[in-house]
Amino acid sequence: MQEQYRTVARAGVHEAEINRSRFLCALAPAATEREAQDFIARVRKEHPTASHNCFAYVIGADASVQKASDDGEPGGTAGVPMLQMLMRREVRYTVAVVTRYYGGVKLGAGGLIRAYGGVVGEALDAVGTITRRRFRLATVTVDHQRAGKLENDLWATGRAVRDVRYAEAVTIEVGLPEADVEPFRAWLADTTAGMAGFEVGGEAYGDA
Q1: Are 30 and 7 in contact, with CB atoms under 8 Å apart?
Q2: What average pLDDT does the structure give for the chain?
């Protein structure tokens, strides 16, 4: 797994006017290819009279899925430069749709490439990106008597508490950088006098 990746902080739209053509870049996070395709369909529905609705998306922390479409623009002048901008900015799990309303002035191949790639870059700046880092999921099990203090100690030491479940015992799920797993094990034993259970699970990504 990649140690970290960047993605868009939220969905958003950025608009630019270039030689009388309107370019609207809609960005959104997308966890799966299906989510990306659903977003593209929604944008197309919102702009049925647009000249073009070009798109690009990158799915996977390792960018394993990459797709782009020129939607009627000359080949390689829209979707590819959009995709290249996402890749250059190291953005993953993200979909971009650029809607163009033609203004009567032809831009030429070079102008189109600059316009489509550029508006995606501007949109990324406007919407913002966040970094998500790889971590290990770990489960701590402790009795009710110690649970409150332990949870406070976890927050106080900057550990990422992801979930707390109350049953016969209290189960606390935390996210740990790989390098912190063994130091955390020792800290937990010391803090709870060896009375807490500790189990390391799989890997996931969380906000840096």
Answers
A1: no
A2: 92
Residue 157 corresponds to which tokens in the numbers above?
């030491």
C-alpha to C-alpha distance for 144 and 186, rounded to whole angstroms: 21
Amino acid at 83: L
DSSP letters spanning 92-135:
-SEEEEEEEE--S---HHHHHHHHHHHHHHHHHHHH-EEEEEEE
The DSSP element (H or E) to which 207 belongs, if any, is strand 197-207
**Cα distance between residue 87 and residue 84, in whole Å:** 5
**Cβ-contact 179, 127 below 8 angstroms:** no
Question: Tokens at residue 145, please?
Answer: 């008597």
* Among 49, 102, 96, CA closest to 73: 102
What's the pTM value of the predicted model, to 2 decimals?
A: 0.74
Q: Enumerate residues 6+ apart whose C-beta is below 8 A from 20.
A: 103, 104, 105
Q: Containing H/E element for 53?
A: strand 52-59
163 within 8 A of 206, measured Cβ to Cβ: no
Strands 21-29 and 129-142: unpaired
User: What is the per-residue pLDDT across 119-153, written as a single tens digit (0 to 9) for each?
Assistant: 999 999 999 999 988 888 899 999 999 999 999 99
| Distance from chain centroid for Cα 168 | 37
Model confidence pLDDT, tens digit, residues 15-38: 999 999 999 999 999 999 999 999
